Amino acid sequence: MPLLSLKDAVARHVRDGQTLALEGFTHLIPFAAAHEVLRQGRRDLHLVRMTPDLVYDQMIGAGCARALTFSWGGNPGVGSLHRLRDAVENGWPRSLAITEHSHAGMATAYTAGASRLPFGLLRGYAGTDLPAVNGQIRSVTCPYTGESIATVPALRPDVTILHAQRADRRGNVLLRGIVGAQREAALAATTLLVTVEEVADDLQSDLNAFVLPHFVVTAVSQVPGGAWPSYAHGYYARDNAFYQEWDEIARDRATFTAWMDRHVLGTTDHAAFLRSLQAARPAEVAGGDGR
Amino acid sequence: MSAPPWTADEMMTVAAARLLWDGCVCFVGIGLPSAAANLARQTHAPGLVLVYESGTIGSRPDVLPLSIGDGELAETATAVVSLPEIFAYWLQGGRIDVGFLGAAQIDRFGNLNSTVIGDYASPRTRLPGAGGAPEIATHAKRTFVLLKQSPRSFVPRLDFRTSVGFGDGGGSRTRLRSPGQGPQAVITDCGLLKPEPLTGELRLVALFENVGVEAARKATGWPLDVADPLEALAPPTDEELRVLRDLQERTSRAHRRPVPLPV
Predict the structure, then answer these.
(1) Long-range contacts at B224-228 (CB < 8 A, ≥ 24 apart)
(2) What does each C-alpha distance from B28 to A262, B10, B63, B73, B155 come to in angstroms?
């Protein structure tokens, strides 16, 4: 498990056309890695994520995705993901093929992928229109009871990318707090890249802690602040004010493109991205008052 | 009639909070449901167990979360579990007493659309989609729906059926083998609707004061079934409004507060 710079990790392991899952349910969303994928100009990606969130709004709006598999595509508590909507409603900047699940369906599909099963089962989707628009949602008859149970095919991303709080020098990775479907998305993938807040000699994990052992981790990159504007529990809070600001930034194609050009594509790495945002903030906001 | 000294959102939130009982295990979404559940917890139901779909069980937040996974939900929780676990063991496992749902459209059988307005392949408005809703609608022992009433939202035919209430009516829900009892209350800015036990069709059973039955009919895209007599929903009390407004004020201050960049 090599400790790599994020630039090297993405350059070595992310290819055009791949299926990529950047997971993290509200918490620990790997924004820095997404931005690096954009800086390196990867194209034609199939993006997989339960909640596209701002991270995929940015990637879709930047035109790197040909397809999206998801289960809830909004800006939580704020409203629409305007770039996602523009792609689905108007094909801008390119058309986007969507495969749509419920959260339970997608969690089940990741679990099947992690278990190397061809499909997963759930008691769900019955009576809804989702199977009519997603042909992957089917059913089997239970061999014991005769009941019809919904099935979803396993999700097997080429590359899953996560952000976590800490790794040790062997590459064991520790996550704390809301952990979403990260374990399943990690183990379902062929390649697992992780960015972390810090690399330490000792993981300092409790028994039963959420640890991804080094032999399933392809590369670890230390990227402090790598989940901003989502959060890393114990390190920094979710920037709810920015999630609200995003509504304005992303509503308009030109405003969005200018923001991405200036802060993401116009910077060399995540530290420079954060500095560029800091410089754009009014002084009284830049200081902040903690949380 | 003059406008009352509270908003429609406040009225709906208070009415929803009153439907929750002490000790009830409640699966909460963001927005009005989260406000209602936390209002109930801070008034008549201190033992209410809030379960957020991000996997936090027993959260006791001091301010309302902006997202379903704000850090405070985890910090104040009894337990934090993964998403596959929350959906498989806790929701599908039948541990949830009440699930709250919202939507863009509802039909007369309490089925919900949160996916698209217009045609799926070329939608007029692309909505966020299913999220946890279809399985909450299936598995929670009962669901409460919060939705403002208008001909655009109370429609004769959904553009897309994201979550099932009573399906096509009659015994349709039973035939789908959905374990939960389905939508047992729909709280709107007009009043309260409940399903007719045999058909599953929603019936207006109570009105807020200041709302007339004709207004409710006009706000409904199908011929509305109205109970006789209609009950009146008691207006929010001073105490309920005080607690709710305090909560909203703390929340809005917290969400606007600048967070220093992690530079």
Answers:
(1) B225/B196, B225/B201, B227/B203
(2) 38, 17, 14, 12, 25
Integer Cα distance of A220 and A195 in angstroms:
6
**Domain residue spans of chain B:** 8-253
B53 is catalytic: yes
User: Which among A177, A235, A277 has the least Cβ separation from residue B80?
Assistant: A177
Please state which CATH number belongs to domain A6-100+156-198+210-278: 3.40.1080.10
More confident residue, A108 or A2: A108
The predicted pLDDT at position B30 comes to: 80
Q: How distant, in Å, are the alpha carbons of A229, B31, B64 from that of B253? A: 18, 16, 11
Q: Using the CB atoms, write b or e for B188-219: b if 16+ within 10 Å.
A: bbbbbbbbbeebbbbbbbbbbeebeeeebeeb
Of A202-206, B17-21, B148-152, B200-204, the range with the lowest mean pLDDT is: A202-206
Q: Are B16 and B36 in contact (CB under 8 A)?
A: yes
CA angle B49, B236, B214 (to 5 degrees): 115
Judge: A107–B83 Cβ closer than 8 Å, yes or no: yes
Asked if residues A86 and B97 have their Cβ atoms less than 8 Å apart, the reply is no
- Is pLDDT of A290 > 50? no
Distance CA A71, CA A130 (A): 11
Task: Concatenate the DSSP letters of all residues of B6-35 into one string.
Answer: S-HHHHHHHHHHHT--TT-EEEE-SSHHHH
Residues A58-83: pLDDT tens digits? 999 999 999 999 999 999 989 999 99
Q: Which of B67, B75, B91, B177 to mutate to test the interface with A (most CBs of A within 10 A)?
A: B67
Largest Cα–Cα distance in chain B? 63
Give yes or no for residue A289 having a pLDDT over 60: no
Q: What does the alpha-carbon distance between residue A200 and residue B121 come to, in Å, rounded to a whole number?
A: 49
Q: What is the DSSP string of B99-156?
A: EEE--SEE-TT--EE-SEEE-SSSEEEE----TTHHHHHHHSSEEEEE----TTTB-S
- B8-253 is classed in which CATH architecture? 3-Layer(aba) Sandwich (3.40)
pTM above 0.90, yes or no: yes
B262 to A80: CB separation less than 8 angstroms, yes or no: no
Which of A26, A177, A277 has the CB atom closest to B68's CB atom?
Answer: A26
**Minimal Cβ distance to B130: which of A130, A244, A275:** A130
Chains A & B: contacts with CB separation below 8 Å: 223
Instruction: Note whether B169 contacts A: Cβ–Cβ < 8 A.
Output: no
Q: What is the structure's pLDDT at B1?
A: 55
Interface test with B, best of A125, A148, A240 (most B CBs within 10 A): A240
Which tokens go with A142?
């239970």
The alpha-carbon gap from B229 to the nearest alpha carbon of chain A, in Å, equals 34
pLDDT tens, position by position, A90-144: 999 999 999 999 999 999 999 999 999 999 999 999 999 999 999 999 999 999 9
